[in-house]
Design goal:
The protein has 3 helices and 25 strands. By secondary structure, it is mainly β. It folds into 2 domains: 201 residues, Beta Barrel (Porin); 221 residues, Porin (Beta Barrel).
Length: 475
């Protein structure tokens, strides 16, 4: 205990005497980790399942002497896991975690750039959660149960990075890291039967993973230099900060922005000829990648053409007999956007504005062919444990079809430098055509088959994040 108090007092003394040059960093990373499996019963070879990590991180760095920095970190981390082993069939599930930590980074100058070594520690915050997945057919039956136990999951991370100073004196970097957990993140049990043989087993995921990411660090070096220049002209510090902020927020009405967005959306499919309450409307997540240009016109108006690739999934929720979601990829839309954008509530004296409002039409090329099926097990009598099976299937085929939609949206640009902006955007799409009609049928044990249809016409809500590069920003 005495040694811990000595270490804490030394750290606090260093922080209190920290040099100027504190930093703020945001970053994104993607990683992968593998589970371990154990098979019980019949010999059925199984592969280890991969877990995909995507995370958004922020840290505040306190500059210490001799190129040493103390970082305080916070992050949001999404872990996508795969409910089934490959030879049983795969779909994916996910859970969102948060983490908090601190660590030390040491920078080594390499000509004009920097190589860094970091050691961080912290905890993941995990909520209680359980998810189960079932498949049933005439040939086989399988079921998996994932369990996440609420706990503080401690971890340690070793990071290697390389940073490039930009013209505005901020830093752009890439990093490679290993994150090791001291407790498992989840455990999974599975059962499988082909009605001839039976096997069961378990998986566990330790959380050990390798990550590759990018980050951007604000150093305020250029801003401080501009403020110091104004101070030489007898301008007080408060007024100097205000003048520098107004100058850096300026955007020409003739500026051209090239933006790359990555986001997710909830596509809104609808069941037709709805006769009972077995299935809820098939609304579920998809993904979108969009590249667009914003070409300044006049009076804060801009033209906004763009192209995108939207991946549509069909997610079906059985809400009557057993809870759960199942889904499969439907099709990709290759889309051309033709729209306009207006900067709203601009304040010329301060170069501020509230948000961007945009709208337009989209013309999409639809290419899709495939089928899907699934099932669930439920118990009608808890005492006698009578089991009943629900199965469903669908198929679709559409090629070379024009898929028109209209959209309205709102966005906000946050300046990272004079030329680079970070964008947060929301957009709602309206389907303008009948769209794709998908035959859908399902059967409950000892009941007659039910035939219905699902309509997919492009209705969706999309949230995306992106980076923009600004050209022609001269006054």
């Amino acid at each position: 205990m005495k040694y811990c108090l000595i270490i804490i007092s030394l750290v606090l003394s260093q922080l209190l005497n920290a040099q100027k040059g504190n930093t703020f960093t945001v970053g994104m990373s993607s990683g992968i980790g593998m589970t371990k499996n154990k098979t019980i019963g019949e010999n059925r070879p199984l592969d280890n399942l991969s877990n995909i990590h995507t995370s958004l991180n922020a840290s505040y760095g306190i500059q210490l002497p001799k190129n040493l920095r103390c970082d305080i970190n916070f992050g949001l981390e999404n872990i996508s896991y795969f409910p089934y082993p490959a030879n049983i069939g795969r779909s994916s599930g996910s859970i969102l975690l948060s983490n908090l930590g601190a660590g030390l980074h040491y920078k080594i100058p390499v000509k004009k750039n920097f190589f860094s070594i970091g050691l961080n520690g912290g905890v993941r915050f995990i909520r209680n959660a359980e998810s189960s997945y079932s498949t049933y057919s005439d040939q086989s039956y399988s079921k998996t149960i994932y369990t996440f136990e609420k706990s503080l999951n401690p971890f340690i991370s070793l990071q290697l990075g390389y940073e490039f100073p930009l013209k505005n004196k901020n830093l752009l970097g890439i990093d490679l890291s290993f994150k090791g957990s001291f407790r498992p993140i989840y455990s999974m049990e599975y059962n499988f039967s082909n009605f001839v043989s039976f096997s069961n087993g378990s998986y566990s995921y330790s959380g050990n993973s390798v990550h590759l990411g990018i980050h951007y660090t604000w150093t305020k070096n250029k801003k401080n230099a501009e403020i110091n220049t104004l101070l030489l002209d007898s301008v007080d510090r408060k007024e100097a900060k205000k003048l520098v902020a107004i100058k850096n927020r300026f955007q020409s009405s003739k500026a051209i922005l090239i933006q790359l967005h990555q986001g997710g959306f909830m596509n809104q499919c609808k069941f037709l000829n709805y006769s009972d309450n077995v299935f809820k409307n098939a609304t579920g997540p998809g993904s979108s990648t969009r590249l667009n240009a914003t070409i300044g016109w006049k009076n804060n108006w801009s033209f906004q053409p763009g192209v995108s690739i939207d991946s549509y999934w069909l997610w079906i929720r059985n809400q009557k007999y057993a809870t759960g979601l199942s889904g499969s990829s439907l099709f990709n839309l290759f889309t051309l956007d033709l729209g306009m954008q207006r900067r709203m509530l601009s304040f010329p004296k301060t170069n501020r504005y509230l948000c961007n409002v945009n709208g337009g039409i989209s013309l999409s090329y639809l290419s899709g062919i495939g089928s899907g099926s699934g099932g669930a097990e439920f118990t009608t009598d808890p005492i006698n444990t009578n089991q009943v099976f629900l199965t469903y299937n669908y198929s679709y085929h559409y090629n070379n079809k024009l898929f028109p939609t209209a959209y309205l949206g709102i966005s906000k640009d946050l300046r990272l430098s004079n030329h680079i902006l970070f964008t947060i955007a929301y957009r709602h799409q309206f389907g303008l055509s009948r769209g794709m009609i998908i035959p859908f049928s399902y059967t409950v044990t000892n009941q007659a088959p039910v035939n219905t249809q699902i309509r997919v016409n492009g209705n969706a809500n999309c949230i995306s994040f992106g980076l923009a590069y600004r050209f022609n920003n001269k006054r």
